[in-house]
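Key idea: predict the complex, not the pieces.
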Amino acid sequence: MKRVYLAGPEVFWPDARGALRRKSEITRQFGFDPAPPGDVQVPPGLDAHARGLHIGRENEKTMDGADFIIANLTPFRGPSADVGTAYEVGYMRGQGKKVFAYSDDARPYFVRLTEGYYAGAAQPDAAGGLRGPDGLRLEDHGMHDNLMLDTAALAGGGAFVALDGAPGEFAAFRACLAAAREWWAGR
Amino acid sequence: MKRVYLAGPEVFWPDARGALRRKSEITRQFGFDPAPPGDVQVPPGLDAHARGLHIGRENEKTMDGADFIIANLTPFRGPSADVGTAYEVGYMRGQGKKVFAYSDDARPYFVRLTEGYYAGAAQPDAAGGLRGPDGLRLEDHGMHDNLMLDTAALAGGGAFVALDGAPGEFAAFRACLAAAREWWAGR
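Result:
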């Protein structure tokens, strides 16, 4: 049975444990062994910083023991995904492991930037692109997020599924699991 | 001579080429061979999405050929770093390569969340932590960003340098290069 690292910002949700338990249950229904992040025993007596480093190292070890990753790249506190999850996608891809990603927000990244983050204030620049009032160029590659994240999923032969849905329904997550099951079945 | 991948969101800056040229010059002054991202010849005839995938793959190849990474993790369009850069930190760390990180914003992540993103609206929860009005828990590990990013730099024996400074002055970047030079000299 293949083990999948369940990356995502659920650890910050109101019912973090419940969400990760639910994701683990769904993962098993698709025939995979779930490896959630943050499922860590922290030794007593550590200060906050040392606790953070301990959790970080444990998450890395969990990834080292996983065969592939399914990452929740739904926008988090801004127009892009959670940086911790983005880091984990890179960590797994750097090891040559398969990446499947999903988002509960179907809007393309470019739309989240133009209509969301910049709220119509981005303007054409001399090179024919768009820039925000902060001077930053807006990426427009028809992707779900920063091109490195889309590349991680697609160039490796995985998938990036984006479906509008309530976070706790896990519709895009299930679609991702279905794509992963199909891929592993074909190996 | 060690080759360093110069990860960061400079590719979106108004003078992206100038900024990356300047970072490359400074890198050489510290005795390293600079490998900037986005220094890519894109074949003609590709649509926007294919161009994005091509750039993503080329950046990955550049990382494959680099010995270590120095990542600009200055907050980008929100309280956290650029997700593309976070991905690249993970990619290099997943390959067991050394991570040095810097930020031109010295404020701890927790302060950027409480005073910046949530602007005082975060409230204590039943577990003794803080939550935003969106229900999301605020990480408080005395770190510079999400704990995975700090872990990548510190648990691997690198450094995370945060100094308030204008982006184009590259003060924190230089401090990072100095730390990297010292580390490689001790090998």
